[in-house]
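ok here's the first one, seq then struct tokens
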Amino acid sequence: MTKTLTLGDKERKRKKGLLAVFFVWPLLSAIMAFRDFGNRTSRKTIIAFFSFFGFTMGFAREGMDGYTHARKFEAFIKMDAGQFKLIIMNFILRRNNAEELDIYTTIINFLVSRFTHSYHWVFLLHALIFSVFSVKFFGFVYDEFAGKMNKNSRIFFILAFFIMPVTIVHGIRFPVAAWIYVFGVYRYLSTEKKTYIWYCALACFVHFSFALALGLILIYVALGNRNYIYLGLIALSLLAPNLMYTYLSSFDTSNIGDNLQDKLEAYSNKDYIVNRNESLESRNWYARLRIPIMQYTMIAVVLFIGFFRKHYYNQDKIQQNLFSFMLLLLAFVNFGFAFDSLGRRFLLIWILLAAIYLYRFYQQNNFAYFKSYTVILAFPTLLWIFVQTRVALDVVTPMWFIGNPVTSLFIEMDVFSK
């Protein structure tokens, strides 16, 4: 007599199968998982695969953020509990001798250093946290439409995945904080439950700049979808771009330590900005232009849809909330360019939300005459994916593709990927 498998039995069988494949060849398990992204086991497999990337990551040159963080970890190996406690107390009390404005990496480094002297486990943990929030975010977006996509919406879903992929996790603080913040913001915009704002607050402990971003979501909670106010702020950011810089530079930081003032001065220092711009200019044209091309094209398309095609989603409260918050975030990004890196970093979050905005628009309006927006964004999208893939080669090692969790424990992996 043939035994009929229940839905639960099939899920358990699938879970065991993916687990077995993961320990033999993680890449194959990830491919299988992506093909069935709607399944929760598949998403957990993707999180595991991305975490495995963190463990196998290498660095092509010493100037990379990941290399710097790997070297910083070495200092925690010799740190005792008393020194760690002092760092935490200085942070909590905001003493002037506090070493960090955010405490996330300090805690992770100290905890991992109690069990191992290998920096690979540090990056595994960072990649795990990064992946949990990013995969949960995409899972929520995917589930909104029961996983059904048309050709246009699929393009922007894939683009959103490439805006801040796991390969940028070597920067640690901002990438991890960004995904925690994006998860919290989108969940709030979708559900309007204020409990999700706590995720935005949590991001501040990962990267101090998200204290400003926390203020953004609080402003949105207070004002709601008042687009005319946000448009006014965008206009002000274009007419007086140094306004936020002037205010923050004159802000009294005596109660929260001198480190904040030092950071503000460092990020707004003219020599720093000049050196940063020279570094950007030295890159290939496609690496140098991919952000401004995507930025201005995406802004034009999103604003046109938001103001002249909004009647196509009048009944979609999430889309209305998302558009309004994006206007407020765009004003913040413009003001942030006075600090150079602040504007550039939060621009990534804006582009990510813009890609999701277009994904949701096409999910509900797959009309032939809307394909022109996809055509307009085709070159920026292909260029972005190409550059992001090329940049990933600086941190990706062969072990991620051909290794597995067992062999990686016994094969010596140097800091450098090449």
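and now the second one, same deal
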Amino acid sequence: MLKLARSNRVIGADFEVRVLFATYYVEYREGARRLLFSAEFSAFGDTALVFDFPDARHWQPPFENDILPDTHKHLILVRVTAAMQLVGTAPDWIADSPPRDRADWGEIMVKARAMLAVTASDVVTICNS
């Protein structure tokens, strides 16, 4: 289940996503590890171009040498997509170039919608943290 905590922060069981409109980033966290996705938000914040550069995807320091397998990158993209939709921003993912684009975007979107369906079936808690 995802919980909406503030208007730009979503908390899952073992992760957190912050949509940072002012700094043009989407931040994904697992414990002390962080990933940053550059983003360009529409004037109303309802859509965003989010940039996924697969060859450069790594944890932020001091964890930049930790391996991030493709299966885990896939899960992260599902979680970020669902979290952004929960805060009311539709993500439009952009890869660095078509030959390197992911072949699993359709699957990512389906899993994100499924994650949101589970969240909607539960009571979404609005936290003031």
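notes on #2: Strands lie at 3-5, 9-11, 16-20, 25-30, 33-41, 47-52, 90-95. Residues 123-129 have pLDDT under 50 and may be disordered.
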